[in-house]
Design brief:
homodimer, 415 residues, four-stranded mixed beta sheet, 12 strands, 37% helix
C-alpha cells in the first residue's frame, strides 16, 4: 500500500499527478476548459482542491476553467466524470477538454483496519473522439446509510461498520445491475437480448477497497445473471448455484455458502474479465475516489491495444451512500487501439510501481501518528519532518514546504 | 440575520427546504432524476449532505437519483446549477427533473465579523421549458487565492483576509465581465453591438456577503462599461467617472475616490436593476452558496410576472477562488409570466420573513458558543439544548433529536 509522510498532502498529490499528466501528454493548459477534483481527503471546509491546481495554469494565462470539487466518499470521481461528459455534450461546451482528477489518501486508526489504507490519484481527459466511450445506459442507487463516514473532524480516520458496509455495497451492486440491465435493453433497437455479463462485458471493474470484495462482487454479479438471464440456470458452469435458485436477494448478503459457490462459479471468468483491472489497487491499496479509475488504468496498462472493440462494465460505490453502474466501449478501430497503447506507454505503470521505496511497518505507523497529530492541530504552523531531498520523490513531484499558522500551504517541485 | 441553535444543522436545513419545496409545488419524488447539494458547511469529511436527503425519497422507492455534493466556498451552487443544466442537455438525461439545493450556515468567531454571518437554503428545479432560461454566454475566472478559507477543522469559523477578499471579488468581477462581453458578442448572429449592462441587463444579481459589496460591485460593473462600451464615456450620466478614464483596472481595487464616484454614477440604475434582488440576503445575512440564488428568489418575489422578457445578469463568487458570470432570460410569454407569479406565490417570502422570531444578541452569542463547542467535540454523544416544541419552528421543519457517539444523526419533523 502507498502512504504519505507529512510532506505530502492531498494538494501535493493532485499537483504531482496533474503536472505529470500534462507534461507526458504534451497538452497545453489553454486546452482545458473544465477541471474537477473528486476526493474525500478534506483538509479545508471551504477552499476546493481544484483552486490549488489553478497554480499550474498560471503561466498559460488560462483561468477560464469551470468546475470545482465533488464529494461523497469513494463515489465522487464517477460524479465528476459524469459531469464533465455532460458538459462536453451541453450547449455550454466551448470545444476544450475537461480534466477530472480523482485522488485520495486513505488512512485508518491503528488496528486491524490500518492495512486497508492506501493512496493514489488518477487524471482523466474528457473530450470528443475518445478511445473510451461512455455508453448511454447507466443506473444509480442512492441511499441514506451510515456504513462509513467521517464525522470526527479533528481526525483523518473514518467511522466504519465493515460488515454493514459490505452489505450496502453488494445490495447497491444488485440494484444497479437490475436497473442497468433494464436500461441497456431499452437502448437496444428492437429490444435485443438481455444484457449478459459473460457475453456482453469483456471486462468488469469495481470500486476496490480490498481485493476480496472485488472477487465477491464479481461472483455476486454472476449470481444475479444466474437468477435473471434466461438460459443461464441451465448452463452447466452455473450448476453449483442451483441450490440457491430460490434465494431471496435481500436476505443473502451474508450467506457464506452462497458466496463460496458463486466465487467458485465465477473463477473461470475472473482471470479474463477482472484480474487485468486490479494491478494498481492491489499494489497501492484503497484509493477511495481513485480506486475504480486506477482499475481502469490497470486494465489499459495490461491490455493496451487489445481493448479495441471491447466493453468495460464499471461499478462505482461510495459509502453514505452513492452507487452507479455504467459501461465504457472501446471503438473497434486502429486509432482507438493506438490511443490506448499510447496511454499505457505514457502512464508507464510497471516502471513506476517498481521504482517505489519500501518502508517498514514501524516507520509507517510513526508517520501515521505524525499525520494524525497535524490533522488535529488547532494553532500554529506545522513543524514538518518528512524528507526534502529529491531522491525520496519521483521527479516532478510536489512536496509541502510550509503550512503556516493561518493554514496557508506552500509547495516545491522536485527538479 | 438568521442563525441556528444546536437543534438545526446543515442536514436539517436542507431536509426542511426540500420537503417544503416538493410539497408546495406538488412534485412527486419519482420525477427527480438528479439531486445535487452545494454547501461549505461541512460536518462530515466523507458522507455527502445529498445522502441525508435520500431519506425524503424513501416512500417513493425512487433511489435512481444521480448527483452528490459540490464544494468551493460560496460558488458551489453555481457549479451544481451548471452541472444539472448540462445533464438535462446530455445524452444521459432520462427526461426527469434535476433538483439543486444551495444551503449554508455562515458563522464567524466573536468580534467584528460575527454580524456578517447568516443562514439560508434555496431549492431549484432544473428542466426543460423553464421560465428562467440559461443563456449560452458564460465566463469564469478561477485562481489559487487565500482570501477566505477554513483550514481549522475543529472550528466552524473561517480564516478571512477581508480587504484582500474584496479585491479578489472585484478583480474576478472585472475579468468575468470582460470575458462575458466577448462571449456574448460571439453568440450574437453577425456580431451585434457590444453587451451593455444598462441596456441589455434589466436586472443584475451578485453573490452578496453584505450589501455594501453589492453596491460597490454594481458600481464597478458600470465603471467597466464606462471603460469598454463605445459611447458610454460621452454619456453625461457617466461624467463623474471622467477623471478615472486612464485608471489601470488592476491597480484600482482599493481606489476610494473611484469607488465613490462609481457608486454615485450607478445610483440611478441601482434602484431599478439591483434593489429588487437583495431582499432576502439583507434579511437573512450571508448565506454563502445560497446567497446569489436567494437574490434570484428575491427578484422573483418582488417582480413576479413583470420579469417576462427580461434578462438577469448573474455574478457568482466563491473564495479560494472560483467565479462565473452568466445570464438568465425570461421568455416573453404569458406561460413564463404565470410560472414566475406562481413561484413567487408559493415561496411566500414576505409572510415567512415576517413570521421569524427575533432573539437578542446575548442569546445568539450563547448559541454560537454552544455550536462552536459541539463542532469541536471529539468524543461522546451531543447533549442538545435547543427547543423541541413545534412553536419554535416553521411547520414542516426538521430538527435534530440525536447525534450519537458514533456521529450518527437523527431528525424529527414538526407536524
Amino acid at each position: 500500500m502507498a502512504f504519505c509522510t507529512d510532506r505530502e498532502d492531498i494538494y501535493s498529490v493532485c499537483l504531482s499527478a496533474v503536472d505529470r499528466f500534462m507534461k507526458v501528454n504534451n497538452i497545453p493548459y489553454s486546452w482545458i476548459g473544465r477541471l474537477e477534483v473528486a476526493s474525500e481527503t478534506i483538509l479545508d471546509h471551504s477552499k476546493a482542491i481544484k483552486t490549488h491546481l489553478m497554480s499550474l495554469f498560471e503561466a498559460s494565462g488560462n483561468t477560464d476553467v469551470e468546475g470545482i470539487d465533488s464529494m461523497n466518499a469513494c463515489y465522487a470521481g464517477t460524479n465528476a466524470l459524469f459531469n464533465s461528459a455532460a458538459w462536453v455534450e451541453s450547449s455550454a461546451w466551448d470545444g476544450r477538454y475537461a480534466l477530472v482528477v480523482s485522488a485520495d489518501i486513505a488512512e485508518y486508526s491503528a488496528g486491524a483496519a490500518r492495512p486497508t489504507g492506501g493512496c493514489g490519484a488518477v487524471v482523466m481527459l474528457v473530450g470528443p473522439n475518445a478511445p473510451l466511450v461512455m455508453e448511454r445506459a447507466r443506473a444509480s442507487h442512492m441511499e441514506n446509510a451510515w456504513d462509513f463516514y467521517k464525522p470526527h473532524l479533528h481526525s483523518p480516520y473514518p467511522v466504519v461498520d465493515g460488515k454493514f458496509s459490505n452489505s450496502c455495497y453488494l445490495r447497491s451492486l444488485d440494484i444497479c445491475y437490475q436497473r442497468f440491465v433494464q436500461k441497456f435493453a431499452q437502448q437496444q433497437e428492437g429490444g435485443g437480448k438481455p444484457f449478459s455479463v459473460i457475453e456482453d462485458a469483456q471486462h468488469v471493474l469495481f470500486h476496490a477497497p480490498y481485493n476480496k470484495l472485488v472477487q465477491k462482487s464479481f461472483a455476486r454479479l454472476l449470481f444475479n445473471e444466474f437468477l435473471s438471464v434466461p438460459g443461464t440456470a441451465e448452463n452447466p458452469a452455473f450448476a453449483a448455484l442451483k441450490p440457491f435458485a430460490a434465494t431471496v436477494r435481500e436476505q443473502s448478503y451474508e450467506d457464506v455458502p452462497l458466496e463460496k459457490a458463486a466465487v467458485a462459479v465465477s473463477k473461470q471468468w475472473y482471470a479474463e474479465k477482472v484480474a487485468p483491472g486490479i494491478t494498481i489497487p492491489q499494489q497501492l491499496g484503497n484509493m477511495y475516489t481513485a480506486s475504480l479509475y486506477a482499475g481502469l488504468m490497470s486494465l489499459i496498462a495490461n491490455q493496451g491495444e487489445k481493448l479495441a472493440g471491447k466493453r468495460v462494465l464499471m461499478f462505482s460505490y461510495g459509502s453514505g451512500l452513492a452507487s452507479s453502474m455504467f459501461s465504457l466501449r472501446v471503438p473497434e478501430d486502429a486509432a482507438a487501439a493506438k490511443a490506448l497503447a499510447s496511454i499505457a506507454a505514457k502512464a508507464d505503470i510497471p516502471a513506476r510501481l517498481e521504482a517505489r521505496v519500501s518502508v517498514d511497518p514501524a516507520k509507517f505507523n510513526a508517520w501515521m501518528e505524525t499525520r494524525e497529530k497535524l490533522h488535529a492541530k488547532q494553532d500554529g504552523a506545522f513543524v514538518l519532518e518528512g524528507p526534502t531531498d529529491a531522491q525520496q520523490y519521483f521527479k516532478g513531484a510536489y512536496f509541502l514546504t510550509e503550512r503556516d499558522a493561518n493554514g496557508r500551504r506552500k509547495y516545491e517541485q522536485v527538479q
